[in-house]
């Protein structure tokens, strides 16, 4: 299967620094892997954490492939190693104490994507004219939704919507959730940080994704919409579309 990739990241309208990082396969480096990471910690700490996570994960996935490890195992190992690396770096540099990052990672295996995530950055699959959220947010408001204490609409404007319950680099151990999704010609895997979904509804993402246009234009259009509606956080979106054989 041939996959077309594109991504767009933007600082937004409020933040002073873009703490998001992403990875799209390029020639000569790790193939069939996509990553979005949303750093936190303030000052330079967030962007250090997210960029460190992306690089460590790529190194670990590349190494795991040489050993022919299953993608699920390599994803867990990669995120665990990113967690250790960020913790070690922060412990040796007081300026970066408390930094961490979300991670959503996709590794392609044949006609499937193996998805691993920690935090509230999301993965969606667009298939047969419908959009489905693959990941389940590790956030306070999501826990309140699950417990019946908040509606989805209330969660979008809740004052604690930025609080996440699980992150990479903040605890000695981190648990990543793993999913597997099948894809076919025309299907799109979409990864994004919460800066996008704070302002853009799922059905709006679907409408833009189904346009007969370049992925570069579509991802930029999504970022532009989030900015037009306030751009309260860094905004990152990455798309991988199956173009057939």
Structure description:
This protein has 245 residues and is α+β, with helices and mostly antiparallel strands. It has one domain (3-242): PPM-type phosphatase domain (Phosphatase 2c, domain 1), CATH 3.60.40.10. The protein is built from seven helices and eleven strands. Strand 5 (103-109) and strand 6 form a beta hairpin. Helix 1 runs antiparallel to helix 2 (71-92). The protein is globular. The model has no long low-confidence stretch (mean pLDDT 93).
Could you give a short description of this structure?
33% of the residues lie in helices and 27% in strands. With 245 residues, the protein is an alpha+beta fold. The strands form 2 sheets. Strands 2, 3, 4, 5, 6 and 9 form a 6-stranded antiparallel beta sheet that branches. Strands 1-11-10-7-8 form a 5-stranded antiparallel beta sheet.
Question: Key terms for this structure?
Answer:
245 residues, alpha+beta, Phosphatase 2c, domain 1, five-stranded antiparallel sheet, 7 helices
**Residue ranges: pLDDT <50 for 5 or more in a row?**
none
Q: Give the helix level as a range of percent.
A: 25-40%
Q: Could you tell me the CATH topology label.
A: Phosphatase 2c, domain 1
Question: Any idea what the CATH architecture is?
Answer: 4-Layer Sandwich
Order of helices and strands: EEEHHEEEEEHHEEHHHE
